[in-house]
Amino acid sequence: MIDQMIYQSGVRHTLVLCLILIAFGAAFYKVAHHPSTATFQLPASYQHDGELKTGTLPTSDASPGFSTHFVSTQQNISTHAASLVELSDGRIRAFWFAGSREGAEDVEIRSAVFDPAKNLWGPEQSIANREDTQRPLLRYVKKLGNPVAQRGPDGTLWLYYVTVSLGGWAGSSITVITSSNDGATWSPARRLITSPFINISTLIKGTPFLYSDGTMGLPVYHEFIGKFGELLRINSNGEIIDKQRLSSGKSTLQPVMLIKSPQQALVLMRRSGSSPKRVIATATDDAGQHWSAPAKTTLANPDAAISGVALPGGRILVVLNNIEDGRDALSLVVSADGGATWKTVYQLEDQRGQPIEVAHYLQAAGESAKATDASITDASGYAKSAQRSKCESRICAFEFSYPYLIQARNGDFHLVYTWNRSFIKHVRFTNAWLDQRMKNNSDAQLH
Amino acid sequence: MIAALLLLPGIAHTSTKTVLSKPHRAILLGTVFVLMLVPFGAMPVAAYVRGVTGDLSITTLVLLCCALMKQWCDCVTAEGKQRRALLMMIALFALALYPMALGIGGYDPYRLGYGDPLFIFVLLLLVLFAWFLKFPLVVLCIALATLAWATGWYESTNVWDYLIDPFVSVYALAVITIRGAKNYIKFQPNRSC
Predict the structure, then answer these.
(1) Measuring CA to CA, how many Å separate A433 from each of A36, A106, A214, A347, A413?
(2) In chain B, what residues touch A228 (CB-CB under 8 Å)?
(3) CA-based angle A145:A146:A150, to the nearest 5?
(4) What is the pLDDT of residues A202-254, one digit of tens each?
């Protein structure tokens, strides 16, 4: 009897050892096939030998150098957090969230497509809602927000968006859907696991990028106990294969990745908290293996999102609320020295110092809407939509926020931002227009 | 989803074992399990649980299974020295991971879980040490967690999520803290008034 017990114990002990060998054999096999570190891939719009790559993509020769439109058309709803991605044929697709109010259960992710050849936006459509998201995830979803899109190296569109199951935005997780036909149809939702603490508090805003080996980079940020930025590295199966911390503490959000070369990048981050009211920057010279200590720049920041693109020759273009308080002014600034100094080249919006009682707000908002798109016939409807979102009692506020800037492969720049929390506004400008503005502003005050 | 289905029955079983008889507990356990599958609104109850908890770690699943099976099978035990070793390991993992992963300091140990070879090697050493000490429960937790990670069992691609989760971490830290406090009180010298 005792011999039998010893024998069974020995067999069990051996079986456990076999389990160890199998488990760790599989683990080391996985580790051996883990992608190695990679350099950054320069954006497709980069100049080569001084020539813009245009190919057969729609050019902007016949289009004005600067034009504006409204992307969204639904009135009397809350609209926010737009992003852009260029499609395979050169058209531009925008995504944003909209609903009765931010965080409501009826908020959905919406999208529309811009045709550069016609200089027109197509009708908007719903891409994802709460019910469609929670069913494939097999988990309850309370609200959606912040869509960010990326084009993978094989042309697949990846749409990341934030979902919350419990609590506020600090409880966010990232969900992703993909499309192999430029957004006509989408895959079921799947969840990215980015944090060990019940996977909460990872949000997205900054433009994604690519690594040289085809893996995808996604700037993210945490907003729970700490507020800090990170970079996720994602493979073509949608699996996270690495994560890098860009900052720590409680003061930086929404990193924006600006790739200067395969090894060098500058990351600008939104300042959150009290002082300093400046955009925070960190940089790398070794493709992200090490990042410099975050430091404040000369760009003002009222705890609001920023966006930017890096251009060849060291120029960096950034769109931001270049003020210390409020979001009623939006500026296009450029740096010609890799981010050391900045100049404002164009004031996209400026409603600072305007009286904010309702009657004047409605008039100013209506004029702003008409200036954005001369073809709209219901400027008062746009103004009343803005009033719904931005007026409380008799007090109103202008808001131009959450910019998202990209440069298309034909060199044109496309910018979207939230217009008074009620519409998404699109601005398109060419390199020639930008160069002219920079020439006109050569004496502009340095920041 | 399996983890969410097991969580509430496991809690129900553990909380009623001194109150209900074995057959009644079996009925309660089965009833709670079935209720977890019943749609409530658009989703089964288990989906609401999963929305809050996410996927539980393999360690939690092993402990839940031990708790559920204990009354009906002596094949697995989570008692004595082995249980203390497992809880201590969980507590140390939690203290090493959560504060820094949530932003305290600039270093993120969670990053190691995406496939750092040295981290996997350290886990191998740990599991071989547990095997040598004949702690099969500790070995099961680490080995099954590692195997589940290697085969992509969950949505997570990080081995930390298979090793521990906030729930088993809180449980381990609470048990160790309470035991430590009891031992401290027990061994205090008598004071004269």
Answers:
(1) 41, 40, 33, 14, 10
(2) 103
(3) 135
(4) 999 999 999 999 999 999 999 888 899 999 999 999 999 999 999 998 899 99
pLDDT tens per residue across span A43-66: 876 644 333 344 444 444 445 699
| CATH code that applies to domain A54-354+398-440 | 2.120.10.10
C-alpha distance from residue A87 to each of A35, A180, A199, A212, A233 (Å): 27, 11, 31, 20, 22
Provide the shortest C-alpha distance from residue B110 to chain A (in Å): 7
Return the amino acid letter for B185: I
- B-facing residues of A in 206-265 (CB < 8 A) are 222, 224-228, 230, 239-245, 247-250
Task: Fill in the amino acid letter for A189.
Answer: A
Residues of A in contact with B159 (CB under 8 A): 27
Closest residue in A to B169 (Cα) is A197
**Which residues in chain B have their CB less than 8 angstroms from residue A222's CB?**
102-103
Cβ-based burial of A322 (10 A; exposed 0-12, middle 13-18, buried ≥19): buried
- Tell me which residue of A59, A6, A31 sits closest to A411, measured CA to CA: A59
ipTM exceeds 0.95, yes or no:
no
Q: Residue ranges of the domains in chain B?
A: 1-54, 75-193
Interchain contact, B47 vs A199, CB within 8 Å: no
The type of residue at A126 is S
Contact B166 A198 (CB under 8 A): yes
| Alpha carbon of B29: minimum distance to chain A alpha carbons (Å) | 22
